[in-house]
Specification:
Structural class: alpha/beta
Bound molecules: 5'-deoxyadenosine, iron/sulfur cluster
Helix content: 25-40%
CATH topology of the largest domain: Rossmann fold
Largest sheet: 6 strands, parallel
Number of helices: 13
């Protein structure tokens, strides 16, 4: 049977059709479980935490098939690229990697290459990958990870390219296996997809409609990680504040957060929050529970009301600042980070100054800053892109300069204070040091015994840098 390919028209559709929760969509039988015996997989993940979490499922599926992991691409029998479509440079990185693998295949033609994730949901990308039949063996999307065993089996049996990408509103697939990257902190999806359709963003097309998971399923997953000794859970969603709006039991994100806090897992985090759905109840719950971390990622995107309107963000500079101030005044010690796009179509110098004005007022603890990148088929892609690349680059540099000043200023405030740090591992730059994150999500390098890894310890900050802090154990 001919397999489904992506369609922008279908990806855009939102109906009132009920979301199906499938508990038996993943099939692992004796035959499939032997395909990977004696073979290795190498998985590269691009993009956000949703992709990182998907990769944890992809790894577990491959290990169910008896593949073992290798960190070396040259050693692998199957290479998988879990891709991101958010900006053009993410695209370019993936196509660069495909080029490298093409070379590798010249000497090792039996290697299988699979491309999945958000780029695989794009019509033009799939068209291009179909032209690379000799290099790319499997293409699958974000809605059919559970079918990976069958797709690999088919690619091996038929010895030809297998493409299967669904563009649909989406189901919820439960009971997929997971092999978590960390033994101490875990990502748990609370919802999939996005219905916000910000005009620049490709995510609503690549990940389908907003579907909240049932609270029982979320709490069960959290219960499982608590039993395994995990110290931290991050609740994941494109817009977690809207959690539950599509569920019949009427549960809100604030209520879910409270249920998760009551499990007593030491640390609860969540990303990402759209300012639009951020309720007062949420702020109260975050303030009430010590195990909900005082860290909020609150994307601004732009400080200009004109640009926010063009972006379809549905808040104003003023309402954003009001929310920001409420968060800061009600949540003790709250650290707030943000995302900002410069050079959106129509952005003038005055508009950009409005963005800088918000940054000056909020003095963010951190900011991810981007040059606007037109994404095929999104509404903004057909707006006239009248800001020159030079201007965009200059604005980004000015913005980064300001943002970095506040990074450092906020870090300086922690000098000589004692902060709780979940020690996660050995520092990449210096083997004598361990590293971890504070409750407010700041990276700390600390000299401590290796058996502190996995523990939350009090650290006295001895040096503040722009991107990290140094500290020593506070006995
Ligand atoms: N161009 C530039 N940045 C984008 N983002 C999303 N789409 C685009 C785009 N087309 C940024 C937003 C979002 C973050 C995850 O990526 O700031 O919050
Ligand atoms: Fe994209 Fe907006 Fe949805 Fe975030 S809220 S994923 S920026 S459409």
């Amino acid at each position: 049977m001919e397999k489904e390919r992506p369609s922008y028209l279908k990806a855009k559709r939102r109906t009132k059709e009920e979301v199906k929760v499938l508990t038996d969509a993943y099939i692992m039988n004796n035959e499939l479980s032997k395909i990977g015996i004696g073979k290795k997989y190498h998985l590269i993940t691009y993009g956000c935490q949703a992709n990182v979490r998907d990769s944890e499922t992809i790894s577990a599926i491959l290990e169910d098939m008896s593949f073992t992991k290798t960190d070396s691409m040259e050693d692998a029998d199957i290479i998988l690229l879990n891709t991101c479509a958010i900006r053009e440079n993410a695209h370019n990185k993936v196509f660069g990697m495909i080029g490298r693998i093409q070379h590798l295949k010249e000497t090792k033609p039996n290697i299988l290459l699979a491309v999945c994730g958000c780029m695989a949901q794009e019509v033009s990308v799939v068209d291009e990958l179909e032209r690379k039949k000799k290099t790319v063996d499997i293409v699958f999307g974000t809605h059919n990870i559970q079918n990976l065993p069958q797709l690999i089996s088919e690619a091996i049996d038929k010895n030809e390219q297998v493409v299967e990408v669904f563009s649909k509103e989406g189901d919820i697939i439960e009971n997929l296996p997971v092999k978590r990257d960390s033994m101490y902190k875990a990502f748990v999806n609370i919802m999939y997809g996005c219905d916000k359709f910000c005009t620049y963003c490709i995510v609503p097309y690549t990940r389908g409609k907003q579907r909240s998971r049932r609270k029982e399923d979320i709490l069960k997953e959290i219960d499982d990680i608590i039993k395994l000794g995990y110290k931290e859970v991050t609740l994941l969603g494109q817009n977690v504040n809207a959690y539950g709006k599509d569920l019949e039991d009427g549960i809100s994100f604030a209520e879910l957060l409270e249920l998760v806090a009551k499990t007593n897992i030491p640390r609860v985090r969540f990303v990402t929050s759209h300012p639009w759905d951020f309720s007062d109840e949420m702020i109260d719950i975050i303030a009430k529970y010590d195990n909900i971390m005082p860290y909020i990622h609150l994307p601004l995107q732009s400080g200009s009301n004109k640009i926010l309107k063009l972006m379809g963000r549905r808040y104003t500079k003023e309402s954003y600042l009001e929310l920001f101030n409420k968060i800061k005044s009600k949540i003790k010690n709250a650290s707030v980070t943000t995302d900002i796009i410069v050079g959106f179509p129509g952005e003038t110098e005055e508009d950009f100054l409005e963005t800088l004005d918000v940054v000056e007022k909020c003095k963010y603890d951190g900011a991810y800053t981007f040059i606007y990148s037109p994404r095929e088929n999104t509404p903004a892609a057909s707006m006239e892109d009248n800001v020159s690349l030079k201007e965009k680059e200059e604005r980004l540099a000015r913005l980064n300069k300001l943002v970095n000043e506040y990074y450092k200023e906020n870090n300086d405030k922690l000098l000589n204070t004692i902060v709780p740090v979940l020690i996660e591992g050995v520092s990449e730059k210096n083997e004598d040091l361990c590293c971890g994150y504070t409750d407010t999500m700041k990276l700390v390098n600390v000299k401590c015994p290796k058996d502190y890894i996995g523990k939350i310890i009090n650290v006295k900050i001895t040096e503040a840098k722009t991107w990290s802090l140094d500290g020593e154990i506070d006995e």
